[in-house]
């Protein structure tokens, strides 16, 4: 399943309220049902511009961070939650997942301008073109609520086809067709 560089990466991009999270959840569920070990990565673009509110202000880890810790962890025998206040982007986030988890698939939601291949979740062709105009890169497939195949320059699926999308993505990953020559990029900006 995994290539020499790590787990299969399934990127998901789109505008707010397009259905990205629901589709990501469906992909995670489908992959897990197939026996694959799955990680989910969510880019919180809102926290890029403003202080995040991921922790309660009085939590022990928040107090340690205010005291100077750049990495904090809440842990139990059941698992852990790792928090880093170090700057980074998709390559660093994926490296962190690889360092702490042995997974087959990473479903990464957000980061429309990141270089990795991704699925655009859009309401229709107009949203797809707006996404490209907003600088989206690496679009290899589309999940559209309103428009079907033939309206997009890449393979198109409906939201209820998560199983088909996962099969297509895994096959494309294995044979290398998710390389940049098989993806659509928007305007550079």
From TrEMBL:
This is Molybdopterin guanine dinucleotide biosynthesis accessory protein MobB. Residues 10-144 form the Molybdopterin-guanine dinucleotide biosynthesis protein B (MobB) domain. InterPro entries: MGD_biosynthesis_adapter (IPR052539), MobB_dom (IPR004435), P-loop_NTPase (IPR027417). Gene3D superfamilies: P-loop containing nucleotide triphosphate hydrolases. GO terms for molecular function: GTP binding. One of its GO terms (biological process) is Mo-molybdopterin cofactor biosynthetic process. PANTHER family: MOLYBDOPTERIN-GUANINE DINUCLEOTIDE BIOSYNTHESIS ADAPTER PROTEIN, MOLYBDOPTERIN-GUANINE DINUCLEOTIDE BIOSYNTHESIS ADAPTER PROTEIN-RELATED.
């Amino acid at each position: 399943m995994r290539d020499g560089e790590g787990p299969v990466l399934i990127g998901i991009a789109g505008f707010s309220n397009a259905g990205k999270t629901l589709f990501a959840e469906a992909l995670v569920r489908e992959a897990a049902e197939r026996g694959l070990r799955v990680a989910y990565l969510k880019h919180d673009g809102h926290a890029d511009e403003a202080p995040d509110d991921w922790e309660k202000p009085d939590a022990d880890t928040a107090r340690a961070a205010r005291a100077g810790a750049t990495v904090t962890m809440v842990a139990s025998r059941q698992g852990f939650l790792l928090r880093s206040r170090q700057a980074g982007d998709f390559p660093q986030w994926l490296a962190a997942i690889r360092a702490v988890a042995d997974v087959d698939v990473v479903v990464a939601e957000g980061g429309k301008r990141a270089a990795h291949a991704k699925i655009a979740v859009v309401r229709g062709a107009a949203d797809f073109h707006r996404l490209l105009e907003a600088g989206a890169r690496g679009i290899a497939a589309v999940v559209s609520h309103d428009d079907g195949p033939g309206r997009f320059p890449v393979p198109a699926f409906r939201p209820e086809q998560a199983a088909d999308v996962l099969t297509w993505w895994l096959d494309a990953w294995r044979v290398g067709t998710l390389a940049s020559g098989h993806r659509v990029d928007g305007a550079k900006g």
